Amino acid sequence: MNQFVLQQGKSPELRLFPHLLEVGIRKNGAIQLNTFSATKTEALRLYYIIDGKYEWRIDQQPYLFYPGDVAVVMPGISFGSDNGVLEIGSFTWIHLGIQQLENGHILPGKWSGLSENEGAAIGKILSLNSSPVCTGFTDAGKILKGIHAELFGHEIGYQARINHQVDELLIQVTRHMTKQSHPGRDFPKTFMRLEEVLRENLSHQWTVEEMAALVGMGTTLFTERVKSFSGFSPINYLINIRISEAIKLLKRPDISVTDIALDTGFYSSQHFSTTFKKLTGFQPSEFRKNHLRTK
Fold first, then answer.
1. Are residues 92 and 235 in the same domain?
2. Residue 132 burial (C-beta neighbours within 10 Å; 0-12, 13-18, 19+)
3. Are residues 167 and 232 in the same domain?
4. What share of the chain has pLDDT > 90, as a percent?
């Protein structure tokens, strides 16, 4: 999977598509700091999670996203992560220029093949939807992959195909929202309960067997579920939770790095520093210094 970012006015691939403001894929092999701050735009933004787990804020509210989920960010709504932290994983996105009506609803533009009534219905549902999370919506990933192929393939009829696929994406997002009775799912709920327990006692040296027992699964099934849902092994999943908690604690100058290391379950401050550097690119002390300097 190759990374790329196409932006309107900068990328020739979007020249025929003024309604496509940005299209891209991003893959993170390490936690990145100060790279995903909350922003507002006048675009309709759709983000599809390929792998990993992301903690993002939409309109100041926190949401968890897992592989197969879509974040639906309406025009004028803030979107990003706390302190710009971007976790390990990969996702793809599209920013769509959309017509905004006086009543707060949205409409696709003239590029769309939807009828006026269909466009209005889709815009109304998107505008009134209470949850910005489409859970388990793998079809969105397939549609976005098709859009990417057409943008770079330039085969005959690709302009019509791309506009059709953008219409299809809007249709499917709307249908998924109307069928989604609630934003939760059984296993993500299990993940949330598991994380609560782990975070309450991160200093404990958790084993895979212990974590599996917490959610009532055998180790084999638990390992398969964690891997398929987060893209990580159980141990790497736990390490990411440890680092996530450590990042929060490093912003408090009253706690020493050694105490943070032990409180979050690392064997020593050296073990903590090595892991933190590997996943973020910074030593814990460097991260703390940079954070305090920018406050």
1. no
2. buried
3. no
4. 46
Q: How many CA atoms lie within 13 A of 124 on its CB side?
A: 6
Pairing verdict, β 43-52 and 89-97: antiparallel
- Does residue 124 carry a pLDDT above 70? yes
- Maximum alpha-carbon separation in the chain: 63
Q: Does the pLDDT at position 178 exceed 50?
A: yes
Burial (CB < 10 A; 0-12, 13-18, 19+), residue 105, is middle
Task: Provide the residue range defining the domain that includes 20.
Answer: 4-179
Tell me the HSE value of 136 on the side-chain side, using a 13 A CA sphere.
Answer: 11
Total count of domains within the chain: 2
Answer yes or no: is pLDDT of 103 > 70.
Answer: no
Same domain? For 38 and 166 the reply is yes
